[in-house]
Amino acid sequence: MLKKLRKFLQFEAIQPLVYLVNKPAGFSSFTIVDIFKKILDDKVGHAGTLDPLASGELLLLTGHTTKLTNTFITKPKQYQAIFVIGLHSDSYDLETPITLFEQYSTLNINTKIISKILTILKTPKPIKVSGYSAIKQAGTPLYLSKKSVYKEMTILNYKIISAQILNKDGVIKKILKLTSKIENNKILYFKISKEFDIKPRSQQIKLFENLLLKMNQNINILKNSTNVKDLFVIKTNLKVTKGTYVRSIAQELEKHLNIPTITLSIKRINSYK
Question: What is the pLDDT of residues 183-210, one digit of tens each?
């Protein structure tokens, strides 16, 4: 059954009963767990959730290895993140409507300034976590209460891969690309469900539909804006301590720059070493 699943999802066994899955954008972490649970007919857990819009390494522990979850959760994580400076949303990503900030010039933004801020974040400090995150407070995920909390997070290391100034059409193209991935992954989910006779989760279907709705809303917001200044887009590799929320880093960039900032995409590239 697992061999057949590899036709649909990328994953590998890194040790007996422990699997490293490349979670596609749009899937919830719980849906990936649910798929493996139904196929293996055994206990399955994950070592560190990924937001629905995020992709990349999701570590699954099955059977008796679920007892080792804390061992893996405490390890640092690495992410590839794209930030857009000049846009704001309440969730600091594309899951809520974006607003535009026009009173700034990209001439005032450069990699040296960004690097300085990321270096500041290498000092442990409590950082605000958005009320749209999955982190639990008193057993309840923040996205259900919309309350924010503070958590200690630290950037252990970082690298700025690229930086470019894009007009609104350039940013729209990036969002359209992400939208296309989510649309394809929605189809993929139904294919997996049919192939393995798994009843599709209504929550996952609603999640796909909601994400696609938000993507299209944000695309229209950009298209219909006539006064969008050029936007500064930066791609980074980040190695962070456990429990770090990458969207919170966007929030910190916004605070230090005094310019709205969101994450356009997040990909986990190392989750267990």
Answer: 999 999 999 999 999 999 999 999 999 9
